């Protein structure tokens, strides 16, 4: 279940900048539009808690981009849910961590282990990904080289890696498991 957020008051401006129909994605439920002009981490923390409780999810693993993680951890802590997400770790976006993650995502795709809910946002983000290489031929998705947003594609790549598709078995081997990535 890919989940994307965009502040309500930024919707029109970003729709014009990015030349995509964010309004339609919000109307069809693919884009969650919290109030305000910037992402309110307290609101996101409450949404995360409610989603986990409503769907009776068991958080087994996860990864946060460390750039804004302190804001989200603080909001989760203040909401009393920091232990609910204690298995979620920092996931850096450099070549060393992203190269095996891209390998894992490719493997999951080739083995038909992924279903992305026909998310137009995820499809759009994946189409914007540009892969760059370092001197050792490690790969990462390079946001600075991309045409537009790639955030949900990065979340998918991190989620697949966190689920351990390279091991003998993985969370993706079970038909009963669902993964939420934000």
Question: How would you concisely characterize the structure shown here?
Answer:
The protein has 182 residues and is mainly alpha-helical.
- Count the beta strands: 6
Instruction: Determine the structural class based on helices, strands and strand pairing.
Output: mainly alpha
- Could you tell me how far the N terminus lies from the C terminus, measured between alpha carbons in angstroms? 9 Å
The stretches of 5 or more residues where confidence is low (pLDDT under 50) are: 165-172
List the helices and strands in order. Answer: EHHEHEHEHHEEH
Share of residues in strands: 5-15%
Overall 3D shape: globular
The number of helical segments is 7
- Major beta sheet, specifics? 2 strands, parallel
Q: Give the integer mean of the pLDDT values.
A: 86
Q: How are the SSEs placed, and which strands pair?
A:
Elements: E1 4-5, H1 11-18, H2 22-27, E2 31-32, H3 41-54, E3 62-64, H4 69-78, E4 88-90, H5 95-110, H6 120-128, E5 131-133, E6 139-141, H7 151-162
Parallel strand pairs: 1-2, 3-4
Antiparallel strand pairs: 5-6
Written description of the protein model:
The protein is mainly alpha-helical. The radius of gyration is 16 Å and the shape is globular. Helix 3 crosses helix 4 (69-78) and helix 5 (95-110) crosses helix 7. The strands form three sheets. A two-stranded parallel sheet has the order 1-2. Strands 3-4 form a two-stranded parallel ribbon. The protein has seven helices and six strands.
């Amino acid at each position: 279940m890919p989940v994307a957020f965009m502040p309500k008051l930024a919707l029109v401006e970003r729709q014009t900048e990015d030349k995509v129909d964010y309004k339609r994605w919000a109307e069809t439920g693919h884009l969650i539009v919290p109030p305000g002009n910037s992402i309110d981490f307290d609101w996101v923390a409450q949404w995360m808690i409610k989603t986990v409780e409503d769907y009776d999810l068991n958080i087994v693993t996860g990864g946060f981009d460390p750039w804004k993680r302190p804001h989200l951890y603080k909001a989760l802590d203040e909401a009393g849910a920091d232990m609910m997400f204690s298995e979620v770790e920092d996931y850096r976006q450099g070549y060393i961590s992203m190269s095996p993650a891209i390998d894992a995502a490719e493997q999951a795709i080739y083995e038909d282990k992924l279903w992305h809910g026909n998310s137009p946002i995820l499809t759009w983000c994946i189409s914007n990904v540009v892969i760059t290489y370092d001197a050792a031929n490690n790969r990462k998705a390079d946001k600075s080289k991309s045409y537009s947003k790639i955030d949900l594609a990065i979340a998918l790549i991190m989620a697949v890696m966190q689920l351990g598709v390279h091991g003998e078995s993985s969370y993706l081997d079970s038909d009963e498991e669902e993964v939420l990535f934000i």
